[in-house]
Each structure stands twice: as C-alpha cells, then as structure tokens.
Specification:
With about 150 residues, the protein is of the alpha/beta class. The chain contains 5 helices and 5 strands; from the N terminus they run βαβααβαβαβ. Strands 3-2-1-4-5 form a 5-stranded parallel sheet, sandwiched between helices.
C-alpha cells in the first residue's frame, strides 16, 4: 500500500487532485492518504495584535483544518484511510518536508488555478515540488473543454 500526499488550499480546484486519487483507487491502487494544508506565517501585525503565539497557532490550525475538510470528507466517504496535517511556512518547502517526514511515496496535486497572483503562486509551488520532491509528483489539471468547429 502506498502513501500519497495531497496538498489542498480549500479551493474547489484543489479537489481535482482528490478526485484523481480516487479514480486511481477505483482502478485498483491500494493507497492511504495524507491531506495537508500549509498556512502563511503570521504577519508582524498579527503577532503584535495577538500578543500570544499560541492563539495565532490555534487560529492557523483551525483555518487549515477547515480548508482540508472537503478533501478529507471525500476520501473518508470512500472508505479511505486519511491522515491530516496543518503546517505553517513556505508551502513549497514545507510540503516536501511533510512528504519526507510522513514517508509518502507520491504527491498528487492540482496545477495553478488559471489566473491572477494566487494562480502564479500556486503554480510556483507545484513547479517546485515537480523539480525538488524526492517522490513522483502527479499534477492534475482542469479538463480541457472540447471546442466545436
């Protein structure tokens, strides 16, 4: 049985990776999953206002768990074993660290969301994992609609 890391950011686009992983399971792959979300580090303003690092950590963890909930629910509804992790820091580096620490055999993740700064950042994280992850990375894209001529 292999262990697959699925990074999610809470977007419906990120669920493409979950659906792809489920298709592989339905085709006969025996797998278990680690669903991960990486939160940005607290800003200076947040640190000054909160006064308590534990409060910031709690808020960050709860936000990450909330963003992972749809992916985890899909996998669990299909009877899959799921571990979760919320981390803080640079997503590209933290996801590689999670894959190594959790002994994942592969990563399945969505490509960029198709526009704007958010997509450029998400695309750069995907590219970094493709280039540097110690395990195979499957990048899942939106299906391309067929155009009638």
């Amino acid at each position: 049985m292999i262990k697959i890391l699925i990074p999610v950011d809470g977007s419906s686009h990120a669920l493409l990776a979950v659906h792809h992983a489920m298709r592989m399971v339905h085709a006969g792959l025996r797998a278990r999953f680690v669903v991960a979300n990486v939160q940005e580090s607290a800003s200076l303003y947040e640190m000054v206002v909160a006064h308590d690092p534990a409060v910031l950590e709690k808020v960050s963890t709860e936000a990450g768990q909330d963003l992972m909930r749809p992916a985890v629910a899909l996998l669990e509804a299909a009877g899959q074993k799921v571990e979760t992790e919320v981390a803080t820091g640079d997503p590209a580096h933290v996801l590689i660290e999670i894959a190594e620490r959790r002994a994942c055999d592969a990563v399945v993740m969505a490509a960029g969301t198709g526009g704007g700064l958010r997509a450029a950042l998400l695309g750069s994280v995907t590219q970094h994992l493709v280039d540097h992850a110690p395990v195979p990375v499957t990048v899942v894209r939106d299906p391309v609609p067929l155009v009638d001529e």
